[in-house]
Amino acid sequence: MLDDAGPLEQLIKLSARVLSVPDYDAAQIEAALLGTFGVDTQLVRDGTYFVTENDGGLTGCGGWGRRRTLFGGDAGRARDAAELDPHVDAARIRAFFVHPEYARQGIGSAILASCEFDAAASGFGRTELMATLPGVRLYAARGYVAGDPIEWPLGSGRSITFVPMTKHLDR
Questions:
Q1: Rg (alpha carbons) of the chain, rounded to whole number
Q2: Which residues, in sequence order, are bridge partners of residue 51?
Q3: How many independent structural domains does the chain possess?
Q4: Looking at the predicted structure, is the pLDDT value of residue 156 above 70?
Q5: 28 is in which domain, residue-wise?
């Protein structure tokens, strides 16, 4: 799967550049692609990252983590690989991106359901995530509760709005 890092990066860039336009300006999107949006190879190595394909091309990706890092790709600055305690901590829902041609066709929901199932099977009773503004709609429709939005600094005086969200899982 690590061989898919190149195609995953391309999917993430395309998804962010097209599907984020109603919520973020081009400068925010490009700045976020420098580290905040991107492939997290730790999820891939942990076996908790899922991809969907159609005719050999990637249509979506997303995963869940048992590590402290809440969001951000490999180039992100807020990384912590320490493992979470499923009896105390929430599993992390991470790095969801869908190809624009396949948006709103259930791909994100299907990947999210797989993540929640696996997290619950691993003993986690709840999940948490840091949603992009376009992602809020998906997660809210799947039962996630939003917290107060935050402004995440991107550098060069730019920031991006994210929304922390949580959900209790059925085990």
A1: 15
A2: 61
A3: 1
A4: yes
A5: 2-168
91-98 and 57-65: which strand pairing? antiparallel
HEC string for 77-113: CCCCCCECCCCCCCEEEEEEEECHHHCCCCHHHHHHH
Q: What is the pLDDT of residues 72-87, one digit of tens each?
A: 655 555 656 788 899 9
> Looking at residue 74, what is its pLDDT?
56
CATH number assigned to the domain comprising residue 69: 3.40.630.30
Tell me 71's DSSP state.
S
Question: By percentage, how much of the chain surpasses pLDDT 70?
Answer: 91
Q: For the stretch 99-124, what's the b/e string if a residue is b when 16 or more beta carbons lie within 10 angstroms of its beta carbon? A: beebbeeebbeebbebbbebbbeeeb
Across the chain, mean pLDDT equals 89
Q: How far apart are CA 119 and CA 115, in angstroms?
A: 6
Which sign does the torsion angle of CA 143, 162, 70, 21 carry?
A: positive
